[in-house]
Specification:
Blueprint (H helix, E strand, L loop, with lengths): L4 H7 L16 H6 L3 H12 L8 H11 L3 H10 L8 H6 L12 H16 L4 H22 L5 H25 L4 H17 L5 H16 L5 H14 L10 E4 L2 E4 L8 H7 L5 H12 L13
Helix pairs in contact: 3-4, 4-5, 8-9, 8-10, 10-12, 11-12
Length: 304
């Protein structure tokens, strides 16, 4: 389930400091961490089968089914999931969670089909733009991962800020000349990379607001992720000193992470479900697992 960490860490990019705490209730993440594969598969399947599926949940369900020894279930899940909502073929081939499927006669035909679908999609891609997005996000993540490993020196912080400024200037030029990069042009992973760069463009809040409007249109056209739009919505609202809508943004209070204030907290999970995000409880469990930090939830500061 680690393939969702990039989105999570875009909101929770704070250095690890203390041991994680198990979720108070069973979540897909806590079941995965406990190697309770059947529960993990069932909870991810629920998230994948929503009217607006949680991104990555179908693949996670297949991985947990494979780990549980349910080959038929794993193949069924992989086969019925649209191929552009699965990771790339190279990742699927090497994912240890799916190792139990490798000697099944259905494995190679599945890979062949996914590879064919991928080649077809790529005929419409702007390859140069995809490569540049990937290169810039790789540098962004390498630097931020160093802070999560305990590196907090001023030189590293300045390097991150300089990288953010450079990425923002480059992306502004792309948007000015080509518009917001759509999924059909850069793929889901490329669109996600573009979103992550604007998510980290905090030094230019006006640009973030501009992209927010462009992404709303793109989501309506099926050319951007509703979940990514939710993250950017919260990012912009936090910068405006307004309560967030989806609960994606956290900060540190008295040495612990907790969500920033959330508008209409009682209905936050309904809003999250509408854009393909899991529940707040799931999100907190993922955060604790990824960052190895305790997260205060429910948090007094979250309610508005």
């Amino acid at each position: 389930m680690a393939h969702r960490s990039l989105v999570l860490l875009a909101a929770l990019s704070i250095a690890a400091a203390s041991p994680g705490l198990k979720a108070a209730v069973v979540t897909a993440q806590s079941a995965h961490d406990a190697k309770d594969w059947k529960t993990c598969a069932a909870l991810n399947a629920q998230a994948a089968d929503r009217p607006v599926p949680v991104s990555g949940a179908a693949y996670d369900a297949a991985c947990c089914l494979a780990q549980a020894g349910d080959r038929d279930g794993a193949f069924a899940r992989l086969t019925k999931t649209p191929s552009d909502r699965l990771p790339g073929v190279d990742q699927i081939k090497t994912d240890a969670d799916l190792a139990s499927l490798h000697d099944d006669p259905r494995w190679q035909p599945l890979l062949d089909k996914l590879a064919g679908d991928q080649r077809e999609r790529e005929t419409h891609y702007d390859v140069a733009l995809r490569k540049e997005l990937d290169k810039r996000v790789a540098k962004d993540q390498e630097l931020r991962n160093r802070t999560n490993e305990g590196g907090q020196d001023q030189a590293l912080i300045e390097q991150i800020l300089a990288t953010d400024r450079d990425n923002t200037a480059w992306l502004k030029q792309v948007v000015a000349t080509q518009g917001w990069p759509p999924i059909s042009k850069v793929g889901r992973d490329g669109a996600q990379n573009a979103w992550l760069l604007v998510q980290h463009a905090d030094l230019d809040p006006a640009f973030q607001e501009q992209v927010l409007a462009l992404m709303r249109t793109a989501v309506a056209q099926g050319e951007a992720s509703g979940a990514n739009l939710a993250y950017l919505t919260d990012r912009v609202r936090v910068a405006q000193d307004k309560p967030q809508v989806y609960g994606t943004q956290f900060h540190e209070v008295d040495g612990m992470l907790e969500p920033r204030p959330i508008e209409d907290l009682a209905h936050v999970d309904e809003r999250r479900a509408a854009v393909g995000l899991g529940t707040m409880q799931d999100y907190v469990a993922q955060g604790e697992s990824a960052l190895h930090r305790r997260i205060r939830w429910p948090a007094p500061a979250a309610a508005q």
